[in-house]
Amino acid sequence: MNSTTLQPTFRTENRPAEPVPRCRQPADIFESLFQSIQGGEVHARPTLELTPGSPFLPFLEIGYALRACLEKPSRHDYLIERLRPHLSVMIGTLPASILPMGMLPKLAPLPSFRPLEAISDEEVRDWLILEGGLIYGEMQRFELENYFDAIKPFLSPGGVMVDLGSGLGKVVMTAALTLPFTRCVGIELMNYRHRLAQERLIKLLTLTRKGLESLPRPLTLDTPLLLPSGLPASGSHLLELGSRIAFVESDMFKFDVRGASLVFLYSTCFGPLMDAISNKLARELQEGALVTTTTYPIKHPAFRLLQSHAPGTLSWTSVMIYQRVGPPMIEPASEVRYLHQPDVAAWEARVRTELAD
Q: In what ranges is there compositional bias, type Polar residues (predicted)?
């Protein structure tokens, strides 16, 4: 396949979703399952734990130091001074975590926490990169339907799909329902998101069992089945759904994707990480494996662009489909590809306007 492949006509909004009172055919089961995994973008976001031993203590320390400057007008100039060198790794005008609805606890910082003056520029930069990765978003149902329509011509039956930064698991579960993957795996660093993904999976499997039990004619492993993507499958697709989905609480950089045939990256907040992610995927993926990204392209010689979808077509943001090409790569690509510098004067004007409100 190449970039000239005929592209499908994409949906622009969600279809009306009527509740499924009873499952009389497999299509009813699929519809009830899709409805059960919607709405994750509006979930409650708990604050990070401010307790001794928390893995987020270093993140909290720097976050508190930045927020202390945000909360005192006399410190605004110093806050701007400390953030200015790191605009290339910031998401938004000000870091979301230090704003009133951010993930920092409202409690006072621990006595051992340092003020911003005692925190190095390198630590601030690393904090901003991590902070961007904590921002959460989801594709809507129609966008995921568009996505799987776009990706299916490049996939062979079977294979392993991996979502790096899987959040509440919506993409992983949608993939497992829509296409005949052998296994779909979600990797998520944040414990509360991983926990919610597991809870949603339990709900999904419970609804699957109830739907199968309500069918007028029992589904067998060999019963012919038409998937929501239009591809053929068998009853095992629903009967063995639980064995094909897994969620792992882990750092994406510590999870080996060597066996993946498709890696999904909702990378809109991963801009500063794209070089490291691209190098990791180049080292681990086999030739022919697919990678898709949002917002940020992959600029790495080990990946060939198959399709690029502009914002407002497949999704609200751009979506790119790549294929791993060439021999295995041991060393990272030498070129640094994501060094960019936004307009400093425009950013500072926005910050001062927001701080004055």
A: 1-11
Question: How does DSSP assign 265-311, residue by residue?
Answer: E--TT-GGGHHHHHHHHHHHSPTT-EEEEESSPP--TTEEEEEEE-T
Task: Count, in order, helices (H) and strands (E) of the chain.
Answer: 10, 9
CA distance 288 to 304: 10
Domain holding 294, by residue range, is 26-42+137-324
Three-state secondary structure call for residue 116 = helix
The residue with greater pLDDT, 287 or 190, is 287
- Say yes or no: 124 and 152 in one domain: no
Residue 69 sits in the same domain as residue 37: no
Whether residue 104 is found in the same domain as residue 197: no
Closest Cα partner for 149 from 23, 6, 272? Answer: 6
Segment 102-106 shows an average pLDDT of: 82
pLDDT digits over 224-270, tens only? 999 999 999 999 999 999 999 999 999 999 999 999 999 999 988 88
Compute CA distances 141 → 105, 112, 164, 309, whole Å: 32, 46, 19, 17
Query: Could you report the per-residue pLDDT of 260-292, keeping only the tens digit for each?
Result: 999 999 988 887 788 889 999 999 999 999 999
Residue 281 domain-assigned (yes or no): yes
pTM of the model: 0.81
Say whether pLDDT at 8 is over 80.
Answer: no
Sheet holding 183-188, edge to edge: 245-249, 183-188, 160-164, 262-265, 290-294, 319-324, 303-309
Are both 233 and 318 inside the same structural domain?
yes
Does a structural domain hold residue 62? yes
Find out whether 273 and 336 touch, Cβ atoms under 8 Å. no
CA distance 97 to 101: 8
Length of the chain equals: 357
pLDDT at 335: 58
Q: Which helix (H) or strand (E) holds 263?
A: strand 262-265
Alpha-carbon distances of 323 from 3, 150, 161, 262, 290, rounded to whole Å: 11, 14, 14, 9, 5
